[in-house]
Automatic annotation (TrEMBL):
Keywords: ATP-binding, Kinase, Lipid biosynthesis, Lipid metabolism, Nucleotide-binding, Phospholipid biosynthesis, Phospholipid metabolism, Transferase. Its cofactor is Mg(2+). It comes from Lentzea aerocolonigenes. InterPro entries: ATP-NAD_kinase_N, Diacylglycerol_kinase_cat_dom, Lipid_Phosphate_FormReg, NAD/diacylglycerol_kinase_sf, YegS/DAGK_C. It comes from the Bacteria. PROSITE patterns: DAGK. GO terms for cellular component: plasma membrane. Belongs to the diacylglycerol/lipid kinase family. This is Sphingosine kinase.
């Protein structure tokens, strides 16, 4: 049977993970040979515990938390034989949705599969979307908000950031092309969604060895307002100001101080470079 560790991030979902910890552990125990329960109270502790569990040779690391906690679990499990399971208990839960895990049952009865990852030149891994520009500014604001929970937080952050909307000159370099343009946002998707279910890269597939890149070129405030409703459906990609393409490697520079976010976590100011690493992570899901 499987040796497992349950990594609980009690602050996720405004305490939802803490409330779910006992029932999640009880549901896991009958299906594994051993279960070690770990409780982390900050990001540094979460990462340290995840890495220690993987180094100890657990077959399965189950993260009870949101996308931030899952992002830390990825750093420990990427490139190893330890599978990552996620019991979603956070705000957005985009990675859990991408791997088909809505509850502990999907970890218990799911199947193992390989997932491509993106990797920054800093060595950080990401599984969902790396973004810069308007969308990373929205992330900055949403992460600082205490209300409301869920996708509505991102909706309100979007509206607030529209007040200071501005485009910037950006140079995008791939393994095949170079684009110099005035952009409002750039999203590099390994999976389709960010921000609690927004399909910014709607056709991204984490098993094809490629990123889907979505670029919104110079957009006025009124144009972006008209475009926003289409983001929820993925129809924004047909807008004339939106450019999409696929690439294995992407470098972004310029941006007038833009900050890159990956998996909803703050990374660094541009320039940034990312590449796909096919099959870098084993996950459990439906």
């Amino acid at each position: 049977m499987t040796r497992a560790a349950l990594l609980v991030c009690p602050a996720s979902g405004k305490g939802r993970a803490a409330r779910m910890a006992g029932s999640t552990a009880a549901a896991l125990r009958p299906h594994v040979s051993s279960l070690t329960q770990l409780v982390a109270h900050d990001a540094a502790g979460t990462l340290e515990m995840a890495r220690e569990a993987v180094a100890d040779g657990v077959d399965l690391l189950v993260v009870l938390g949101g996308d931030g906690a899952a992002h830390l679990g990825i750093q420990a499990c990427a490139g190893t034989s330890t599978a990552l399971g996620i019991v979603p208990a956070g705000t957005g839960n985009d990675l859990a949705a991408a791997i088909g895990s809505a509850s502990v049952d999907d970890v218990v009865f799911g199947t193992r599969k390989k997932l491509d990852l993106g990797r920054l030149s800093t060595g950080q891994w990401f599984a969902t979307v790396l973004c810069a520009g308007f969308d990373s500014a929205v992330n900055e604001r949403a992460n600082a908000m205490r209300w409301p929970a869920g996708p509505r937080r991102y909706d309100l952050a979007i509206l607030a950031e529209l007040a200071s909307l501005r485009s910037a000159p950006v140079l995008i370099t791939t393994e095949m092309d170079t684009f110099s343009l005035d952009a409002t946002l750039v999203a590099v998707g390994n999976t389709p969604n960010y921000g609690g279910g927004i399909p910014v890269c709607p056709t991204a597939d984490a098993s094809d060895g490629l990123f889907d890149v979505t670029v919104v070129e110079h957009a006025s405030r009124s144009m972006l307002v008209r475009m926003l409703p289409t983001l929820r459906t993925g129809a924004h990609t047909s807008h004339p100001s939106v450019r999409t393409f696929r690439a294995r490697e992407v470098s972004l520079s310029g941006g007038n101080g833009w900050i890159a976010y990956a998996d909803g976590e703050r990374q660094e100011a541009l320039p940034v470079s990312v590449r796909t690493v096919p099959g870098a992570l084993t996950v459990v899901g439906r």
